[in-house]
Amino acid sequence: MARIKNIELPNEKHVCIGLTAIYGIGRPLAKTICENAGVDSSKKVKDLTDEEIQKLRKEIDNHTVEGDLRRDVQMSIKEKMEINSYQGIRHKKGLPVRGQRTSRNARTRKGKGKVVANKKKAGK
To answer: What's the pTM?
Structure first.
């Protein structure tokens, strides 16, 4: 069982896919890491030797991933909120930040719909 940056890589997956379990590593970066470390990306994680795992660790140390990256992202969000930029204001209000419409379909950011009291229609 390979453990890199305190993340257990899934055993049954190929190395290049398994590396994406680490925050900040996507498919293209995982492929580059495998090439630079000299590890066959089509090999399963459970078949890696200790030497290959060490090579992967050393190569991943060259990139900002996991805790450092999470901290950087949170700090940049906090900075935007402090300077009251447009994106910072949207973060504060809990609204979509990147220009999406909110008249419909913004439920991921806005949360569950709020019930509005039923207005009685003027009867004839």
So the answer is: 0.77
